[in-house]
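Why does residue order matter? Because the sequence determines the fold. Keep that principle in mind as you read this record.
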Amino acid sequence: MFKKILCITLGVMLTISLCGCGYEHFDINLESEYTEFAKEKGLVGTELNVYNWGEYISDGSEGCMDVNREFERLTGIKVNYTTFESNETMYSQLKNGGVSYDIVIPSDYMIARLISEDMLSKIDTSSLSNYKYIDKKYKGLFFDKKEQYTVPYNVGMVGIIYNSALIGEPQHSWNALWDEKYRNMSLNFNNPRDGFMTAQKLLGYSVNSTNKDEWNAACEKMKQGKDVLQSYVMDEIYGKLETGEAAIGPYYAGDYLVMLDVNPDLRFFYPKEGTNIFIDSVCIPKCVKNYDAALAYINFLLEPDIALANAEYIGYASPHTAVVNNPDYCYYQNEILYPKDEDMPDVEYYHDLPEDVRMHYENLWLDLKLY
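Structure:
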């Protein structure tokens, strides 16, 4: 059994020299439980298809640990790693069935949709020796109440990043994205849930509204601000804000901390009207072809040193207690990732919405992009 073989924590021996939040050098003991597991299950020489967000795993750049390479070294399993930039893109790929994935890492509301459409395989978390590290406040949430399909990977909130050297101090409101002062210098999300969220919060609506008139109003608000925008972006925001090509835009808090390493003039705030909080979780889709390797990979991601490497590279809040409570963690008690209760913004999770509402806002989004 996987749990029996992995009941002892992987011996990860690191010679650590912190450079920012990465490792200059590391060495992982190859004589490990993972090696034994891979041999016992006949996984050596097989392949694992992983589908994840861009910039969402420690990849060996700038002295950081290369997580996928270390998994390959330990197990002899080849990791085929591809990325997506939105939940909707990931969903379309799974739905179309053209490619088979063994691991996907969607967000909460999309997980709920995948479960409702019977597109995920169950995960026996009792077989994962490292599941104990997941903070209980992130277990059994609305999208997976019985903890059958998901293992939390990262936690985040959306805020606004701006270049203080270019625009000074903007109002701490979503309205900053509509401000004429920042014409052709502001950005917004290039996906409907996050994009409409900026308008919904400004208008005082729930991001989970089933009132189509409220979605219409949010779309009209977005149209009003379209002339001010330079562009709609996802990961392109890195280059635009880091170089000063753009000066203000909404994105995920963890990504701000990564950008800050490149451009120290960047600043961040959570808008006063409230914002989205999200949890991305590791899942095994129904199209899985290497289930045992997928379980090994999930447990590997939960190894304390692996989780730490990912948390420091990615910059998002971690649901992993060994990371959060580690005083050597470079984001230990960071006020943006882990705000105190009194500083916590008003937050709302996205929920999967009825199909007619979803189709309505997706059509509105197409209309907005053509406007």
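The chain has two domains: 2-150+283-324, 156-277+339-370.
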